Amino acid sequence: MDNHIKFTVIADGSEQIIETNIGKYRNLMSLLKDEFYLDSFGECGGVGRCATCIIKTSGITGNSAIKDRNEPTTLSRMGYKEDNIRLSCQLLITKDLEGSNIEIID
């Protein structure tokens, strides 16, 4: 089984290809914090309540395309209604992210 995954992250207007392995990070938020040294990103630690790890996505497939747990409520509370606005803490590093684009929202 191929454990490798590759996707594009847009941060501060520049694109970077991220290559990692499934299971290396707890979730997408952890990977983004590690790779991009983001201050005040993911302050609740991945519970899905603080909305400090908001991203804009395209190309996510499978079960990862479905918002569940605290994510819909938290995003709605913050005024986000778009399907492509997500909390990175709620996305696991799976094949569902292969080839996707992730933009970090300030």
Q: What can you tell me about this protein's structure?
A:
The protein is α+β, with helices and mostly antiparallel strands and 106 residues long. The protein has helices at 28-36, 71-77; strands at 4-11, 14-21, 54-58, 85-87, 101-104. Strand 1 (4-11) and strand 2 (14-21) form a beta hairpin. The mean pLDDT is 94. The protein is built from 2 helices and 5 strands. The chain has one domain (4-104): Beta-grasp domain (Ubiquitin-like (UB roll)). Strands 2-1-5-3-4 form a 5-stranded mixed sheet, with no helix packed on it.
Please tag this protein with its features.
single chain; 106 residues; alpha+beta; Ubiquitin-like (UB roll); five-stranded mixed β-sheet; 2 helices; 5 strands
State the end-to-end distance.
Answer: 36 Å
CATH class descriptor: Alpha Beta
Q: Characterize the overall form.
A: globular
Radius of gyration: 13 Å
User: Could you name the ranges where pLDDT drops below 50 across 5 or more consecutive residues?
Assistant: none
Which structural class best describes the helix and strand composition? Answer: alpha+beta
CATH homologous superfamily grouping: Beta-grasp domain
Q: What composes the largest sheet?
A: 5 strands, mixed
Mean pLDDT comes to 94
Percent strand equals 25-35%
Q: Which oligomerization state do the chains in this entry correspond to?
A: single chain
Portion in helices:
10-25%
Instruction: Based on the coordinates given, report the CATH architecture.
Output: Roll
